[in-house]
Amino acid sequence: MSEKVSGEELELINGYAREPLESEQVFVFSVILCDNEIDRDGEKFSSRTLEGLAELFKGRTGIFDHDPKSEKQSARIYDAWVETVPEKLTADGEVYRRLRAKAYMVRTGSNEDLIKEIQGGIKKEVSVSCSVKRKLCSVCGADRYEVECGHEKGREYGGKLCFHILDEPTDAYEWSFVAVPAQVNAGVTKRFSSAESKSAFLDSYEDVALAREQLRGDVLRLSYFCKPYMTAKAVGDMADMMSLRELIDFKKKLEKQACDNEEVYIAEEQSFLTGDYKV
C-alpha cells in the first residue's frame, strides 16, 4: 500500500511540481539511501557526511542503474533526514545511523507496474551518486585524495581494519534502483535481518578486496594499450577513487578501446622491431 500523503507532505511535494498535485495523484514511499556502515567497496560515510547529504539529496531524482537519460527518471525525493538506531552498531563499533528519505512519483498509466514492484518488494535496492571532499584512511587518518599512505582496504593493521571514510559532501547527483547496491542496508524501507552480522561482513569483505585488487591490475594493464597514454600512477589514482562497480565499467571501456586500437598497436610494434619506430 502507498503511504498516506499528509497535507504537510503534499506541500513539500508541490514545492517541486510545476502545477499543484492532489494526494490521489501521487505515490509516495520511504527509502534508505545510505548509512555509516562499511560497504562492499570498503568505504563508509561519516555521520557529518550523512547530515550534509540529507540536505543535498532533497529534490534529487531517482533513476535506474545510474543511467542519466531523462526517460530513466522515475521519482523525486521531497524530504530526507538522518535516523539513529541506538541498539545497532556498525562493523567498526559506531552507533548505526542511516539516511532516510521520502520520494514521490506521479501516478500514470506507464508506471503502474513499477509502483506494484515497489509495493511488492521487487524494486527496493538503491545506490547513491554523490561527491565528497575527503576520503580518509581509517588506520592513519590520511586523506587518500591527497596522499598514498600505504594502508590497503580490507587488511588489518595492529588489529584495526582498514577502510575509507567518506567525509565532507560537496554534491549529491542522483539515486538509483540497482540490482546490487554497494551498501548492504540501502534500499526501499524494509526490516533488517539479524543475519547481517559483523562476522558475515568481514568474511565476505576479504573476497571483495581481492576482487578489487584483481580489477585494479587489469585496468592498469589495459591502460597501456589505449590512447591517449596515461601513466601507471594516474591510472592507479583513478582506480583507487572508484567503486567496485565503477572499476568494472572502466575495465569494459578500456577493453573496448584496446580492441578498437589493436591493429594500430600491432603495426607500431612491428615497426619498432624492424628499427623503423619513430618517437
Describe the structure.
The chain has 279 residues and is of the alpha+beta class. It folds into 2 domains: 7-135 and 169-192, no CATH class; 203-273, no CATH class. 32% of the residues lie in helices and 27% in strands. The chain contains 7 helices and 10 strands. Strands 1, 2, 3, 4, 5, 6, 9 and 10 form an 8-stranded mixed sheet that branches. α4 packs antiparallel against α5 (232-240). The longest helix is centred in the last third of the chain and has 26 residues, at 198-223. The protein is globular.
**Secondary-structure element string:** HEEHEEEHEEEEEHHHH
**Percentage beta strand:** 25-35%
Tally of individual helices: 7
Q: What is the helix fraction of residues, given as a range?
A: 25-40%
Give keywords:
279 residues; alpha+beta; 2 domains; eight-stranded mixed sheet; two-stranded antiparallel sheet; 7 helices; 27% strand; globular; disordered C terminus
Structural topology:
Layout: H1 7-14, E1 26-35, E2 43-45, H2 47-56, E3 61-64, E4 75-89, E5 95-106, H3 112-119, E6 126-137, E7 156-157, E8 160-161, E9 164-177, E10 187-188, H4 198-223, H5 232-240, H6 244-260, H7 262-273
Parallel strand pairs: 2-9, 3-9
Antiparallel strand pairs: 1-5, 1-10, 3-4, 4-5, 6-9, 7-8
